[in-house]
Amino acid sequence: MKVGRVLVTSVVLLVLLAVFGYGVWWGYAQVSAPGPTPTPTACVPTNVGAKLTPNKVTVRVLNGGTVGGLARSTNRYLQAFGFNVITVGNTSARIATTTVVGNSATSPEVKLVMGFFPGAKAQGDGRVDHTVDVLLGAAYNQLSKPPTSVPVSGPVCLPPLSTPSSSPTPTPTPSPSPTATK
After folding, report:
1. CA-based angle 94:97:101, to the nearest 5?
2. How many angstroms separate the CA atoms of 47 and 49, rounded?
3. What is the CA radius of gyration of the chain?
4. CA distances to 35, 118, 171 from 63, in Å
5. pTM of the full predicted structure?
6. At 64, is the secondary structure helix, strand, or coil?
């Protein structure tokens, strides 16, 4: 009888240990799983008159070059002209040439931002919120008198304006962009 009791106790303890181990594994899997990805907010058709100005354009500035503090100084440069800068930080991708990324290379908001970065290249990725990313590669010449508007006809699709941030800490991004790092 004593042998039977020891055997039953051992089996019960092994079953409890297996249930506990499964619970630990399941809990760890739930905690380490990535959270839901934010869905981009579609742009809002906005009547801006005959020209698009910086105060209507939402920009993210990401440094992908080797010059430290370039995103921060670019943030100040763009905000001085009225752009709504929502993210300032670094990108994990190495960028050789400053690149301006938006819905399309010919979008009015991309054209406006391009005027501030001579020699930059424009790129479209189909983003639905019409934010503009400035991916900085190397130092650039800050124009003292860049074009502060581009002509448009009819409404322009723009993201809903959010509160700008001058913090160098990236915030969650509503549309696809290169990975921002601190």
Report:
1. 85
2. 6
3. 25
4. 26, 17, 15
5. 0.69
6. coil
Q: Which domain holds residue 28?
A: 1-33
β-strands 121-124, 99-102 pairing:
parallel
Rounded Cα distance, 3 and 146, in Å: 90
Token code pair at residue 48 = 């801006």
How far is the CA of 146 from the CAs of 43, 49, 71, 110, in angstroms? 26, 20, 18, 14
Q: Does 18 lie in the same domain as 53?
A: no
Residue 39 belongs to a domain = no
Question: Is residue 21 domain-shared with residue 100, that is, in the same domain?
Answer: no
Q: Side chain identity at 142, as an amino acid letter?
A: Q
pLDDT, tens digit only, all 182 positions of the chain: 788 888 889 899 999 999 999 999 998 888 888 877 666 678 889 899 999 999 999 999 999 988 889 999 999 999 999 999 999 999 988 998 999 999 999 999 999 999 999 989 999 999 999 999 999 987 777 888 999 999 999 899 988 765 444 444 343 344 445 555 55
What is each CA distance from 149 to 14, 37, 124, 140, in whole angstroms?
A: 73, 34, 20, 20
| Count of H-run helices and E-run strands, the chain | 3, 10
